[in-house]
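User: Quick one: structure for sequence A, then sequence B.

Assistant: Sequence A:
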Amino acid sequence: MVFTHYNQNMMPEDIGLNEAQILETMDRCRNCHQTEYALWKSGGHSALYSDIFLDEIHNSTEQLNFDCLRCHGLFYNGTINDLVGPISMEGPWALIDKDKQDHSTIPCMACHKIHSEGRPAEEPDYSAPKNIFYNRLIENKTVSFYSRHEKVHFGLDQLPTPVMMNQGDTVKTPIDPIYRLCVQCHAPSVWHQAGSHDDHTPVGVHEGISCAACHERHSNFQRNSCVKCHPAISNCNLDVKTMNTTFLTPSSSNDIHSVACIDCHDNLKTRK
């Protein structure tokens, strides 16, 4: 492997590692990226195989299938039949491969390629400080999506932006390429209806806003997101953090991804 890695005539386009190697590499990632690892650990993407495939409520409400591993087990070498049994909604469920119980289903390399395209950072032209802002390159080459089926990473420029619909109307999707990554797993139904299945494409007042505008990159934490765009008191003299949305409570009927003005302002419903 070392010989292949350094021999220019045999340099692979993409480095193929099995799941055990991926997890070992991830342990080394955190030696330098301790902050990113800690944030990832505190978010939903750090779920273990046991958290996903031994959750009785989840297993009894959704049939396990081969596509589960597309997002929850991207580097697993087998199929869902090799991992969990029985494949039913009755249970009781058990991991056939007991060693997987404490392994991460979405490791760092799910979204990060080991080698990324780019070029070394350059010092700015200090003689023209006003132009430093304009001369900086806008690049995001470190993020990519690992396809379990193709066994390669796809950069954000290679991922398509889906055409999303909302009650028959076309949705303005975020222009941020990060959205293309998120929607690979947080995907809609085959009809591309916003909010279907596990899709969170924003519509309503937040239509067109990027996922990264509210969700922090590694932890997915979003509790501080309102203050990024809204002052303490909004234009309608209401604190947006106290409005009846799922930001305030999960029991709210107004999903923050689809909330519209009319959902909170009853007076708008009577206007013609």
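Sequence B:
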Amino acid sequence: MNVKLIRFFDRTFLSAFCFIAGISRIFPKKLKTNRILVIKLWALGDSIVSLSMIRGLRKNLPKAEIDVLCHERNKAPFMDNKDINKIIEFRVSSIFKLFRKYDLCIDTEPYLNVSALISLWCARYRAGFSHGIRSLLYSSRTEFSKKQHMVQNYLDMIRKLGFNYDADKLVKLETTKAEKAAVEKFLKKNKLSKNDFIVGITPGVAESVKTRMWPLERMAELADKISGKHNAKIIIIDSPANKGEAEKMASKMKTKPIFCIGDLSIREVFNLVERCRIYICNDTGPMHIAAAQGVKTIGLFGPNTPVLWGPYGEKNISIYHPPWCSPCIDNAKGKMPKCFNKVYQQCMKNISVDEVMKAFEKLKNAK
């Protein structure tokens, strides 16, 4: 999947369709909530963050049908979630069958035009963010605030509709007995027990913005310090796409880590992460997995701000020392530029090993 090409097509061509449809749309009828569709087409971590809003819908509307439209690649967080009736995978054929099927569609995407057009097709009443031409298609519009976490931005969408709900932590990701058994087998194979002090680390990031990655030599130095001082077992957990980064980090370590790179499915990884005592991660999906599973989490930030995307929960820590150019990512507009600072990746290089180690010690000693 070429992410840049998809975003270019969406921004260049589909914005015109949004404008035409928006100025010619029929004004919505009164809000009904028997059948609700939530659209979340992008990103694993973002999908996890959106679950609090879905939980808020379910608490307020216990008898409503709540379905989710997503891609296959971000489907895992929605599976086995008791707040959701059905998951619909994004395909042209499936979209055609949804014409005016829903009373309400909540489009959680902050900038995609295609999701706004789908909401118009699927529902009589539509809710989305208030910026951009695409907002013309919505019946209810909510401000995308850069001064609060995305959990709260999503909750604002249902508050605007009259549903009161708040959350101080993420919704836990459920896994099956078979998935838990697969993790037990993995732990046994790697000679890990419940008594081991397991620390999870994800050195890589998703393909959209590679500059979010903390220098691998620093991650390796940190892992060695943690392993040496606390007799911790280090598990490097990452996607097969980041196998090179994981191996490079391990090659710089004095101690030998355990690898989980494609050994388990993403949903099995949910359970593996839950077995960790502390998790250290760049600003990417596994950070939100750890926070959702109640694991003490350290998030390392640079191109984006932890105000929006930090590991949600009171026991978690975000480390962020922005230079003049950060945050350079604009989530509301879908802008994810390459680093243009004279000192390449200065935002991530501003984070030292010592301060991450201090954050680790703080979490370790926290009750």
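The mean pLDDT is 93. The CA atoms of residues 222 and 353 lie 6 Å apart.

User: Thanks, that's what I needed.
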